[in-house]
Backbone:
């Protein structure tokens, strides 16, 4: 048999095929592990992004509350409601 016909019939690949057949379950398992590791990484990225989004939302809320407490018209914020009143100005008597 010529070397070209052996190549055509796959004879040179027989040792590789003999070794690959038992490795098939291992390769399938490695692919499953690779998929799981990829999923784990994706979840880690999501966790970091959620943490960043929560921190940004908390910071924005803090900025808004700070602005309401001391920002804007500082004179109005400084006056604020008086103790024991509804915060409405007391009408002066004539």
Residues:
């Amino acid at each position: 048999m010529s070397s070209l016909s052996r190549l055509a019939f796959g004879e040179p690949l027989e040792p590789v095929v003999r070794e690959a057949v038992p490795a098939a379950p291992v390769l399938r398992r490695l692919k499953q592990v690779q998929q799981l590791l990829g999923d784990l990484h994706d979840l880690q990225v999501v966790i970091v992004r959620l943490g960043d989004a929560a921190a940004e939302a908390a910071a924005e809320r803090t900025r808004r509350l700070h602005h309401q407490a001391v920002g804007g018209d500082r004179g109005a914020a400084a006056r604020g409601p008086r103790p024991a009143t509804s915060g409405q100005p007391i009408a002066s008597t004539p």
